[in-house]
Amino acid sequence: MTSFPFEGLPVPPEPPAPSALPRVVGRPLFAGRTAVVTGGGAGIGAGIVRALAWHGAQVVLADIDAEAARRTAGQAAEESGVEPVVVVGDIRDPARIAELTEAAGPADFLVNNVGDHRPAGPFLTSAEADWQQTYELNLLHVLRVTRAFLPKMAERGSGGIVNLTSVEGMRGIPGNAVYGAFKAAVINFTASLAAEVGQYGIRVNAVAPDLTDTPQTPMWAGTPAKYADQVGRWVPAGRYGHPADHGDAVVFLLSEQSRFVTGTTLRVDGGTLAAPGWFRRDERRFTNMPRPLR
Ligand SMILES: NC(=O)c1ccc[n+]([C@@H]2O[C@H](COP(=O)([O-])OP(=O)(O)OC[C@H]3O[C@@H](n4cnc5c(N)ncnc54)[C@H](O)[C@@H]3O)[C@@H](O)[C@H]2O)c1
To answer: Which domain of life is it from (predicted)?
Structure first.
């Protein structure tokens, strides 16, 4: 549920969750497939877990937050009838990755979802320890977990990988330069790996979110009440994102519907990156010049 906090204002529409794509009764899209989702306990990861489970995948959900992991696993089980396997622990810890590969076995799909832009701050006063922390949360585990699951996919001659990057890996993000750099690295890793492993029947793609209401970026909680009714005009798609938007994007990228799509980064951002540098002046006009905003 979107955490819309404003009484008296119309609640913005939410996409159908867990998926807008009807489930195929009898033989769901991902029947017999195993899908690993890191950070699947809350936010976008939870949206992905619920969508993949809805379409019949046996999900293996890894999260540092045991309560969130169990809550989402329970919800997915209730919706889809298949209980996700939960692995609790810090994905930055190689021992947890070993546990995850053990629990999942030869997975068909891998979704590297863990990432965090916090703490933010000017590069001018940042320290190497901050860069290392950002590296470990946004890139290092993506390499490690992928390296752990890839050999069995290659052996079997099929597999699908989706990495969560950000629109901030495609444009600058003032106050978060190191995070932006590692998210850009995820985009290039996705493209380079796709080129390498296409020969084994493995596709690798990325999803770049923006403005999605999650525990990490609680969009509504951060929107002053007096601007709440402006959101529909600021975001080209007319609303903030919902984890289910990403769930369906990942369903597409892991399904046969995208069989000729690999190495790409799909922006799931409601259109925010479609015209960067252009600012809305009023209901009809935009500007890319310094002008008073009305
Ligand atoms: N929300 C957005 O608008 C947005 C925008 C751009 C990019 N992203 C990217 O999408 C991904 C998901 O973002 P979100 O907003 O849903 O995040 P979130 O912080 O709301 O949820 C992250 C989940 O991962 C788990 N997690 C965090 N650190 C972990 C660790 N070390 N080991 C295991 N689990 C861990 C958390 O417990 C939580 O369940 C991230 O990679 C993020 O950078 C999100």
So the answer is: Bacteria
Q: Which residue range forms the structural domain that includes residue 128?
A: 34-287
In 88-199, alpha helices (H)? 94-104, 128-135, 141-156, 177-197
- Taking the centre of ligand 1 as the mean of its atom positions, its distance from the CA of residue 25, in whole angstroms, is 31
Q: Is the CB of 133 under 6 A from ligand 1?
A: no
Give a yes or no: residue 21 inside a domain: no
179 part of the active site: yes
- Residue 293 maps to a domain: no
Per-residue pLDDT of the chain (294 residues; tens, 9 = 90+): 567 888 877 788 889 999 999 999 899 999 999 999 999 999 999 999 999 999 999 999 999 999 999 999 999 999 999 999 999 999 999 999 999 999 999 999 999 999 999 999 999 999 999 999 999 999 999 999 999 999 999 999 999 999 999 999 999 999 999 999 999 999 999 999 999 999 999 999 999 999 999 999 999 999 998 888 888 888 999 999 999 999 999 999 999 999 999 999 999 999 999 998 888 888 888 888 877 655
Tokens of 87: 């692995």
Ligand 1 touching residue 90 (CB < 6 A): yes
Domain count, the chain: 1
Residue for token pair 């699947």: 40
Structure tokens at 51: 């969508």
Which residue in this structure is represented by tokens 């009898």? Answer: 26
Pocket test for ligand 1, best of 50, 91, 189, 214 (most atoms within 8 A of CB): 214
Q: Strands 286-287, 279-280: parallel, antiparallel or unpaired by DSSP? A: antiparallel
